Amino acid sequence: MFRIFSFCFLVFSAPVLADVWTFETPSENIQCVVGQGAGSSDLECTIIERYGPPALPRPASCASDWGHSFLMYDTGPVQMLCAPLNHSRGGYDRAEYGITGRFGGFTCHSSRKGLDCRNLDGHGFFLSRAVQSVF
């Protein structure tokens, strides 16, 4: 049922049109939302359970959960979000292991090792329970 990974989606020219897709890894531990509108797209992924240090140091201004939510646009560097963690699972399309999806300005690959997502500039992140990295 994970159709978004089997198609390349087109960007509509009307600025009022926007599409949103959701997907999660088979473990339901990593959940992502893709937004695609006229001229740009964004991808936000959240890892619910993680171990080890966060991919980037916690900013002094962050008084909420840190190290769980990653945001990127079709170009530019990855941002980590200081935001409350939602622990709910399920309800997303499944990105089975071994699947690569291309949509908006992103390519994501789901594997037993984790989820690897990159944008058009080559910036991205890798998420697994044991390792979270930003590049």
SSE order and pairing:
Layout: E1 18-24, E2 30-37, E3 40-47, E4 69-73, E5 79-81, E6 93-94, E7 100-103, E8 106-111, E9 114-119, E10 124-127, E11 132-134
Parallel strand pairs: 1-6
Antiparallel strand pairs: 1-2, 2-3, 3-4, 4-5, 7-8, 8-9, 9-10, 10-11
Key features?
135 residues; mainly beta; 5-stranded antiparallel beta sheet; disordered N terminus; DUF6636; signal
Describe the fold and architecture.
The chain is mainly beta and 135 residues long. It has one domain. Helices cover 0% and strands 41% of the residues. It has strands at residues 18-24, 30-37, 40-47, 69-73, 79-81, 93-94, 100-103, 106-111, 114-119, 124-127, 132-134. A six-stranded mixed sheet has the order 5-4-3-2-1-6, with no helix packed on it. A five-stranded antiparallel sheet has the order 7-8-9-10-11, with no helix packed on it. β9 (114-119) and β10 form a beta hairpin. Residues 1-15 have low confidence and may be disordered. InterPro entries: DUF6636 (IPR046576).
Strand portion: 35-45%
Count, helices? 0
Mean pLDDT: 87
Main sheet makeup: 6 strands, mixed
Integer tally of domains: 1
**Overall body shape:** globular
Segments where pLDDT lies below 50 for 5+ residues? Answer: 1-15
Number of strands: 11
Specify the helix fraction band.
Answer: under 10%
The main sheet orders its strands as: 5-4-3-2-1-6
* Structural class by sheet pairing and helices: mainly beta
Topology pattern, helix = H, strand = E: EEEEEEEEEEE
Radius of gyration: 14 Å
Give the N-terminus to C-terminus distance in angstroms.
30 Å
Keywords: Signal
Pfam families: DUF6636 (PF20341)
InterPro entries: DUF6636
Signal peptide: 1-18
